[in-house]
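batch job 7 of whatever, protein = DsbA family oxidoreductase
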Amino acid sequence: MKIDAVIDVVCPWCYVGKRQLDLALSARPSLKADVWWRPYQLGPDTPKEGIDRKSYYAKKFPDQARLAQMREHLSDLGKSLGITFDFESECLIANTLDAHRLIRWARADGVQDAVVTDLMQRYFEDSAFLGAHELLVDVAAKAGMDAKVVADLLNTERDNDLVQSEIAQARKLGVQGVPVFIIDGKAAISGAQGVDAITDMIDKLKE
């Protein structure tokens, strides 16, 4: 069963959704699932140097009470999934194009899942800047990729067009928010709907 998981690594709901997908697949150990992590950008115009997270969310959510409520909900949900969200530390939101290039290259080495998990953990739990090439190289090395090759590739525009083309295709298919899990090209689950929603869809398609 092929699962195309469309995400952006600076989307908290994508981190939640990934954990829910992991748990759903663990609950179906006999299922041979091939998960492809696909790119999406919520902020394609984010500058290379990043933008301050607090300022960004203050503009996006002028109703601070609503923002606090949303983060509290995310924090509680995260704890139930083993995620410790840090929304308070100083942090820069990155343009995620380079991170998505790394995820694409990780597919060839069979370590996409490890790279996606590490990127999200570093951003949401350690408040790291995902636009830093040295961080991306470190993520790659820890997953078992060739650090020098990744460092050299990041200093080029290799696969920029392919990643942007995938994002454009997702938008053409109607993806307006993430995560979206497309199962065997037949059904899609939009948003972090929970473990049961994923296992139910898997079971229906298997039948």
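notes: The chain has one domain: 2-206.
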